[in-house]
Amino acid sequence: MLKLIVVDDEAIIRDALSDMIDYRSLGYTLSGSARNGMEALDLIMDEDPDVVITDIRMPVLDGLSLIEQAEKKGARAQFILLSGYDDFEYARRAMKLGVRYYLLKPTDRSELEEALLAIRAEREKTAPVGAPEPEEPADDLVSRCKAYVHGHLDQESLSLKWIAEHHCFVSIGYLSKQFILHEGVRFSEYVGRLRMETAKAMFDNGETNIRTVAAAVGFGSNPQYFGQVFKKYIGCTPSDYLAGSSRGQ
Asked: What DSSP designation does 75 have?
């Protein structure tokens, strides 16, 4: 079964997209849903889905920015973009990002099913060979995964998929499951928290250049997104933190 996630900031639309199609009959399993691009990016890091159905206009991180960030992390998902705006500029930008499925709201069920079947046919032609069975204990694998993360926080492309396939030599599904069992949190939550705590420590130690800190924790090309993630984990923007508003100074 291929994995699929649904992304939309409106709960009624998320629910409709989740219920309008019998995904299993099309060869898919619904792995989760997200309210915005930031949540979706975390899901993509953890689940490595085959397909992401996403709205374009969303808070925090819009659909096109989500695609850009996901590609930097090596995501292999095909994106189906949904838009309530018949806007050529969006379509043009989407095509530049390699998106081939761009559907207008309200979503037509048959069009969505056709897109999913076409993607499934493509994936079946290029199905990868499964990862070998792990030969080392799960706790050692998780420790090796964490060590790699700590040593490569500045890499924007840091992802569980890459670590699983190229550093631990296991499937992402296996490593994701073991990571949650051993750490009690998803990989994306662990990395996000570590990056923001590292950023906060850099500010506490006297660094005042937000762009420098953003680059050091993996947001070199997008310091604005760094600010959004920092606020999610720390509770305020980097500028407010530097001003001392959240430190009681």
From this structure: -
